[in-house]
From TrEMBL:
InterPro entries: Glyco_transf_61_cat (IPR049625), TPR-like_helical_dom_sf (IPR011990), TPR_rpt (IPR019734)
GO molecular function: glycosyltransferase activity
Species annotation: Azospirillum cavernae
Protein name: DUF563 domain-containing protein
SUPFAM superfamilies recorded: TPR-like (SSF48452)
Domain Glycosyltransferase 61 catalytic span(s) in chain numbering: 377-548
Lineage, uppermost ranks: Bacteria, Pseudomonadati, Pseudomonadota, Alphaproteobacteria, Rhodospirillales
Taxonomy, superkingdom: Bacteria
Stored Pfam families: Glyco_transf_61
Amino acid sequence: MEAVPPQGAITLAEALGRALALHQAGRAEEASDLCRSILRARPEQAETRCLLGTIAFGQGRLDAAGALFAVTAALAPAFFDAHRNLAILEQAAGRPAAACRHHRRALALRPEDGATHLALALLHGEIGDEPEAVAWLRQGVTRAPGFLPLREVYAGFCERAAVRAFGGGDPEGAARFCEQALSLLREAPAVTEALRDLLERLVRVALIVERPALAMEILAIKDPLDFPEIPPRDIDRFPLTLLPFPAWCAAAGFRHETWQAPAQEPDPTLRSTSPGWLRPQIDRLSALAREPVGVALDAEIEVVQGFYVKDNYESHLLADRRFLLREVADTVVHGSRVPLVGVTPGATAGAFRLPRPLYRTVVIDQPVLFLPSTPNYWHFLVEVLPRLMVRERVAETRSLPVLLFDVRPYHREMLQLAGLPAEQVIDARDLAGSDGAQLLYRLSRAAAPSAIPYPVAYRWLRERLLPRRRGDGPPTRRLYLSRRGSAPKHRIANDAEVAALLADRGFETLQPERLGVLETIELMAEAEMVVAPVGAATANQVFLPPGGRWVHLCNPDFFHPDSRWNPQMGVQIPLLGRFHHLAGRFIDDPADRPDDLLARLDIPVRIELDALGRLLDEVLLDEVLARPPAPSGSGPG
């Protein structure tokens, strides 16, 4: 045991400092021995007794720690740390009411202590007394204005309250909570990385309650996080009106044509044979099919390339910095070098930032037919390629070169299959060079086709691409589209086992990324059944023959009754014919699983083979029962 050195050899502060250093180094027993030595010489020494209690608390000896803290508080009632430590101990023991009493005693000694205000707010939140929790947050911000965690937690409460208010049909209440959060964050001493997601959610709530100016103010606080190297004066911020295509053309003063395109009709029996959670999406199809399509002509627009949604899909069209052609219902934006456009389900306004030093402007004076771009097979086939129908409908667009960004070999094959000559394709990279800058394209005479509703896109793709087949075999093939050689998203952990089970039932295993576009179309058109993980290759569903079956292997976030993605992902499925799904189970540690749905796409899932076998047997049996009976022959009597 280490004794206290003779008087004059070491001061009390030095001895206490040595004990604290031993504790911080993980040498708990030595630290405890030194503390006890100090207390034998100075039994009234509060800091030492408190440190001894802290060591006992760390060792899980709560009773011993509590006794030490209580004696310290009795001997030195003005010693703040003793009351704070008693509060922490009571909370650890599951006694929040007692913890609150000790925190209040500590706060009486230090009324400006932000951490204690925060602890009291969090404890009352755990108890379920939300008004009291808010009262402590409000008082804490007033008394400790520089303590940032109080503002973070208070602003987070305001954001959650705003969401609840909107969900309860009170958009004005939601806006007030957003304004309250804005006030807290505007006066904060710093903007931390932890606030990034909170600020983005507040932007979306402000937009969905139609308060774009409020969204812009919130974005101004977020600027230092997203663009730390850009002075605020060099960032353009402007609200945008989100409009459907005809209204966008009219508001911008563009000459345009619109028309009603024929749409693919789903199987009339599909609603009755689909699960109940999918039926709302089936019911949406008729409304989707009636949405007009069209093209703006001789349009002066700006295209911001460098802001992406999903798999680098979206290129936003601005008309005089006022109007955004709304093409998707939601955005997923992360990263510090892209502007943020808030597009939220139900919103009518967007918020946009353009950090000028990050962008180079490219002017394109020649007339072009503008198409958005994506490296993703699904999005290009289903959402980009069908816009070429404008060339069939509006004669003056037929001879225009088609401007795309980041053109891939499979893009060129699709475009040629759709009837676009190769010499009519312009890759914007050839015009802009490759200096790595973000680009703002200014198009002076663009023909900009509208987005195409899925029922219209599916019919057009079938009518234009299926006749390109080099054969016309019967729909008897069974295909498994494996992702074993592609990106980790939607990966099946036991892919080899799944392929082996399917092979026993007559399935061929294919890797779609190794196939050409026409080859893929031909295979799909001859398939009676396809099994595939959710992913880009599922776009090929459109080429299934009538009555073809598609089995989705998916993670638990997709295609099930509780999936938040049903509204986004479900509208295409009813067009396929017969749809079935089987959710696997994640193979990661649930404690490490991210909250973000997109991030969870990277987690492989394991498919239960018995469940897959039963599903296939049911599907195949249904297919047999659905076939008309063969005519019976009449032999001689």
